[in-house]
Design a protein that fits this description.
The chain is mostly helical and 323 residues long. It has eleven helices and three strands; from the N terminus they run βαααβαααβααααα. It has one domain: Up-down Bundle (Rhopdopsin 7-helix transmembrane proteins).
């Protein structure tokens, strides 16, 4: 189609998760509760790490940044989805759709890189403990955190570059609750083979590279932990279990979605919801349950808060002005 002879669609229609009003009311309540829990749970980790000097180490700095990314990953589409449960039609502007695509790939790409950085941190801590303080200093940790955001932005811009200029002249119906790039590309009024291939190469390269690096890192760490038997290794094993669980929860849905990225499977919606809603709420639960330092710091934070509340509510002593 001649790109000079089309009228770009002004908005897209999202089909959402269900057409049943009863289910939509139920989802409205459920996802409201889950979203509030995501924000509170992850920001509790951030506040705990900031307020506890003992947690000012690379591992926990990265963990707090992971919590921030999880909040953003849940926020780019979940509030819009919650709003749409009560309103018809479920529409989103063209600009809003492109913004969702951009934000999704920024936060998801950034989280992939950050998980690799966290695996490297655990590799150094467990396999080279005597050199940990030298290798994983605050400067390197800060560089890794900033690098994860920069790579996420670059990855997202590369995805958006070949999407935003495609001719979208109709239809404009997206069978999802957010603007999924794999579905939006198919709506373009042109041959989308090249854009689809570029998207697969871009996302696939980043996803596969990150996953292979994580696989290698955790394999080496597990072999090291198995060879050693000490209290330190027991602690390392508990921490490692939490990391591997989070990686599995994050990459599992991504791998399935991108293995068949242009097939329309009902399970894709379930996996999308899992990766953008359930994974961000499970991460703080996993880390707090498997990490004694975080639990102890949260207990200290709670005690400090309760004590400050008690002091603020104590009655002021009365002054006897007659004496």
């Amino acid at each position: 189609m001649d790109q000079g002879n089309y009228s770009r669609v002004a908005e897209f229609i999202l089909l959402g998760l269900s057409n049943s009003w009863e289910l939509q009311y139920f989802f409205f309540i459920l996802f409201n509760i889950l979203y509030i829990a995501i924000v509170l749970g992850n920001f509790l980790i951030v506040i705990t790490v900031i307020s506890e000097p003992a947690l000012h180490t690379p591992m926990y700095i990265m963990l707090s940044n992971l919590s921030v990314l999880d909040v953003f990953l849940a926020t780019y589409a979940t509030p819009k989805m919650i709003h749409d449960f009560l309103y018809e039609p479920k529409t989103i502007s063209f600009e809003g759709c492109m913004a969702q695509i951009f934000l999704l790939h920024v936060f998801a790409g950034g989280e992939m890189v950050l998980l690799v950085a966290m695996a490297y941190d655990r590799y150094v801590a467990i396999c080279k403990p005597l050199h940990y303080a030298t290798i994983m200093n605050l400067c390197k940790c800060t560089g890794m955190v900033i690098g994860s955001w920069v790579i996420g932005v670059m990855h997202s811009l590369s995805q958006l570059a070949f999407t935003v200029n495609l001719p979208f002249c109709g239809p404009n119906i997206v069978d999802s609750y957010y603007c999924d790039l794999t579905l939006v590309i198919k709506l373009a009024c042109t041959d989308t083979y090249i854009p689809e291939l570029l998207m697969l190469l871009d996302s696939g390269l980043m996803g596969v590279t990150s996953f292979l690096l994580l696989l290698i890192s955790y394999t080496v760490i597990l072999v090291t932990v198995r060879r050693r038997s000490s209290m330190g290794m027991v602690k390392a094993r508990n921490t490692l279990t939490a990391h591997i669980t989070v990686v599995t929860l994050f990459f599992g849905p991504c791998i399935f979605i991108y293995v068949w990225p242009f097939g329309n499977f009902p399970v894709d919606k379930v996996l999308s919801v899992f990766s953008t809603v359930f994974t961000p709420i499970l991460n703080p639960i996993i880390y707090t349950l498997r990490n004694k330092e975080v639990k102890a710091a949260m207990q200290k934070l709670k005690t400090r808060y309760v004590n400050s509340r008690s002091l603020s509510q104590m009655p002021l002593p009365k002054l006897d002005l007659l004496n």
